[in-house]
Structures are given as C-alpha cells and as structure tokens.
Amino acid sequence: MTRPEATGRTPGDDPPQRPSIHVVAAVITDARGRILLARRAPGRELAGLWEFPGGKVDPGETPEAALARELHEELGIEVEVGAPLMVVPHRTPSRRLHLDVRRIRAWRGTPKGCEGQALAWVQPQRLARYDMPAPDHPVVAALLQPDRCLVTPAPGVDDGAWLDALAASVANGVSRVQFRMHGVADDRRRRLLEGAARHCEAAGAQLLVNGDAALARATGVGLHLPAAQLRVSESRPVPVGQLLSASCHDAEELALAEALGCDFAILGPVLATPSHPGEPGIGWARFEALRERVSLPLYAIGGLGVDDIATARSHGAQGVAAIRGLWAGAVGESPAGVAA
Ligand SMILES: Nc1nc2c([nH]c(=O)n2[C@@H]2O[C@H](COP(=O)(O)OP(=O)(O)OP(=O)(O)O)[C@@H](O)[C@H]2O)c(=O)[nH]1
Ligand SMILES: [Mg+2]
C-alpha cells in the first residue's frame, strides 16, 4: 500500500538523510511444507523479483498488526502471526531496511494476488531458484541451513575421547562442523579428520576443514578460510558445491568473503570470550552494522551458545558458531586466535 515510510532505528554511524524502514514479511507454509512467494508487479520498485508477502510497518503499528493488515490487503487472508524467523538489517545507498520475517501459525481463506501479483508455492529446496531481493538471501539461508556451527576444540591427549565428544555434539543437534586443529602433527590431524568425517556422515552433518585447501581438495570435505587466508585468496579454492566459509572481523573481510563466493561466514567476536581475555567483543550493534552491507549467511561467534540463537537471528545472523557453547565434552586450554 502507498503510505508514508515509517522511520525506525537510525544507528549512529549513518548519515541522518538515509531513511530507515521497517518491513514485515511472512513465511506462509502449506500442508505440504511449501512456502508462498509473491512476485513484485510491473511498475513497482524491484519489479519481477520474488518476495515473502508483507510490507511496511505504519507509524504506531505493531509488527504483528502490520503483517496481518498487509496479508489481508495483498492476499485476502486472515492470519495468526507466529514465531519470529529473523530480522535482516540491509543498507543501500539511499536507505536502510529492517526486514522482519515472521512465521504464520495459521490462516483462513485462500491466498490470491489481490494487487495483480503472481503467487507461487515453492518447495524450500527450490527457493534458491527464485530471484529475490538481496535482504531475502539470509532469510532463505535461515530456512534451509543449520542455525549453529561447531568449531572443534584442541584434542588434548585422548583422540578417542575427542571423537566421542564430536559424535555426542552432532547427536545433540550440531549439523555443521568446522574442524579446527592447530598445532597437531599432520598424520594425527588427518586421522582425526577421517574419524570426524565418519561421525559427521553418519549423522548427516556437514564438515569443513580449517585452513587447509589441499586437504579439503584431497578429502572432499568443505574448507574454512581463516581471515589471513581469505585476504590472499584470489579465486574460490574449492569448487562450487563443496562448502566454503571464512572468518571475518570487518567490512573489508566480509566483502572479500562474499566476492569469493563463500557459502557463509563467521563474524565476531560478538561478546567477551575466554579465548580472547580482556577483549569486550564488537557487540550486536556493530554486528548489525557489518551485516547490513552483505547478504551472505553469517554466524555470530564469541561467547555464544544455543541459548543465543534467537538473539543472533534478531540481529540478522544465521545463528551462532562456538567451541564451548556447542561442544559436548570438556574444553581444555583456549586455542589461540579463535573467538569462541
Ligand atoms: N514484502 C517484502 N518486501 C521486501 C522483501 N524483501 C525486501 O527487500 N523487501 C523490500 O521491503 C520494502 C517494502 O515492501 P513493500 O513494497 O511490500 O511495501 P508495501 O506492501 O507497504 O507497499 P508500498 O510499495 O505501497 O509501500 C520494499 O522496498 C521491498 O523491496 C520481502 O521479502 N517482502
Ligand atoms: Mg508489500
């Protein structure tokens, strides 16, 4: 609907002339698990792109009321708004946007394109085939990809106990694992990677090796680039289809990770963490300010665990990455150089 744009948050590092808009959008799922997309009609901004139905929050309106109103106006249905999925902060040269995505618990009526827009019910795995605005890319990732990424701790002296803890971690719901194993001899590291790969495969979890492109290519597991390697990578070190991620700490590294075609990145440290004593962390406001410049999925790292996933999602993160917060075993000495 055409109405004045509601102004929302305006974080301090932004020129005052850049308007901020709060948009609510819906994940509406049918009995077959398909998700409803609407195509922006000709003549409108971003015409032809597919989106989650919704629109701008009016001044004084709650997000829930705005979403119910928009879905009535655009689709002719009455809804019960459900749980938040995520809020994506996004900036363009002319404005900043908070895309606040909610699940719909129940609805009455049959969705129709009341404003002439085409509609499509899409299997989640096919969402990536639809051309969507940049702020929607993290939303699609949140619907499809894991909300937590384990970074492995050092193995101590007992490799069997380490592998048992890894197996317990993936059994506990971790389905993305970054195998980080610094200061361990090559043959031992390789044996542990093989053990980790067996456990991950059995549990359907994804595995990425930290910092060793040759080992990733030789074994077929994914590759995680530490920031120093990201900064010197000129092309994607593993083929598309083999997972690639990177550690990022600032806007420049995030832009590099996106340009290299990383499937996701890890950004932090967000909170203080035992592995970085004396460092306060960048905090959620800074996390958002960095997140709004790129659209690849980002895990927040640094002093976080499963209880922080909802908070992380409300700041535009895919979820959390952690050592301590996700490892189902004892964590010994803090490995240097990782904030988890
Ligand atoms: N509804 C919706 N808007 C989105 C999505 N992603 C995204 O970037 N946007 C942007 O959010 C803004 C608000 O969307 P809208 O055009 O639906 O707003 P509206 O229904 O109130 O209509 P209006 O154009 O009459 O003000 C648009 O600039 C749109 O490009 C999405 O998935 N759903
Ligand atoms: Mg709309």
From TrEMBL:
Q: Where is the Nudix hydrolase domain?
A: 19-145
GO terms for MF: hydrolase activity
Q: Which UniProt keywords apply?
A: DNA damage, DNA repair, DNA replication, Hydrolase, Magnesium, Metal-binding, Mutator protein
Cross-referenced SUPFAM superfamilies, in alphabetical order? Nudix (SSF55811), Thiamin phosphate synthase (SSF51391)
User: What is catalyzed by this enzyme?
Assistant: 8-oxo-dGTP + H2O = 8-oxo-dGMP + diphosphate + H(+); 8-oxo-GTP + H2O = 8-oxo-GMP + diphosphate + H(+)
Q: What is its EC number?
A: 3.6.1.55
Entry's PROSITE patterns? NUDIX, NUDIX_BOX
User: Which cofactors are required for activity?
Assistant: Mg(2+)
Which superkingdom is the protein from?
Bacteria
Query: Per the similarity annotation, which family is this?
Result: Belongs to the Nudix hydrolase family.
Instruction: Tell me what this protein is called.
Output: 8-oxo-dGTP diphosphatase
Q: Which organism is it from?
A: Luteimonas rhizosphaericola
